[in-house]
Specification:
It is built from 10 helices and 11 strands. The strands form 2 sheets. Strands 6-5-4-7-8-10-9-11 form an 8-stranded mixed β-sheet, with helices on both faces. A 3-stranded antiparallel β-sheet has the order 1-2-3, covered by helices on one side. The protein is α/β, with parallel strands linked by helices. β2 and β3 form a beta hairpin. It starts with 5 loop residues before the first strand and ends with a helix. It has a single domain, classed as Vaccinia Virus protein VP39 (Rossmann fold).
């Protein structure tokens, strides 16, 4: 009998953690005993950015485009009580299985509003203001079309006055995918940062690059602390270098 398309298993790498697997591909890892804990390197990079957006412990308004196991939403709920978060997940099977096998704790449940919908359609219909939007929506290794759409990012930016957009980009190597998403994000935000493994930026392998769009002055100030935060070995491209490398 074939295995379920969406399932939850004990993580083979992280003791005590659970792993969401979709179409036989690991998607998200959650530690039920410590929901603030992040596991994948790219999630650590996103967590590093989130740590700089506001003072430690201050609540945030966060929009998550792509839910998975809601690892980053749980992280925010644990570290920033009182945060208001909306999670958009397009796959109802993921929402159902995560709810059954990886349920949110009481504090996270108060923080997180889960919407099962297509973000391409829902984001233009949303109201309100957010401090941060995290775009991490993949089906397997394929990103939806809106993830490289300048018009969609402009619509997203309308929900983020003075805020920041963070995009996780899976790149096969050579930065081809990153160079598709970066101009779309740059069309909607003043400046970009780019964070990722040093060997990925050197063209030696594929992996995940985290792009951040927002206010130039604050992004410039974040370069040094993000280089310290890691995970290492890491590259952080500040606004000028990101523009030269990814938008030329």
């Amino acid at each position: 009998m074939s295995r379920s398309r969406v399932r939850v298993e004990p993580s083979p790498v992280f003791a005590g953690a659970l792993e969401l697997v979709v179409d036989d591909r690991p998607q998200s890892v959650v530690d039920p005993a410590n929901p603030a804990r992040l596991h994948y390197d790219y999630a650590h990079r996103v967590g590093g950015v989130l740590s700089l957006v506001a003072d430690p412990g201050a609540p945030l308004r966060v929009l998550h485009v792509g839910g998975g196991a809601m690892t980053l939403a749980r992280h925010v709920a644990a570290l920033r009580p009182g945060s208001h978060q909306v999670v958009i997940e397009s796959d109802p099977d993921v929402v159902r299985v995560v709810g059954e096998r990886m349920p949110l704790g009481p504090a996270a449940a108060r923080s997180i509003d889960v919407r099962t919908a297509d973000a391409a359609a829902l984001v233009p219909a949303l109201e309100g203001r957010y401090d941060v939007a995290i775009v991490d929506a993949y089906v397997g290794l394929d990103a939806p079309g809106f993830a490289a759409s300048a018009d969609w990012y402009r619509t997203l930016a309308d929900l983020l006055p003075g805020g920041f957009a963070i995009a996780n980009v899976v790149d096969d190597g050579g930065l081809a995918s990153v160079r598709l998403v970066a101009p779309a994000l740059a069309a909607a935000f003043a400046e970009l940062l780019a964070l990722g493994p040093a060997d990925l930026f050197a063209g030696e392998r594929g992996g995940n690059v985290v792009l951040v769009g927002g206010d130039a002055e604050r992004l410039d100030a974040w370069v040094a602390p993000l280089r310290r935060i890691g995970p290492h070995p890491a590259t952080v491209l500040g606004p000028a270098e990101a523009a030269r490398t990814l938008l030329g």
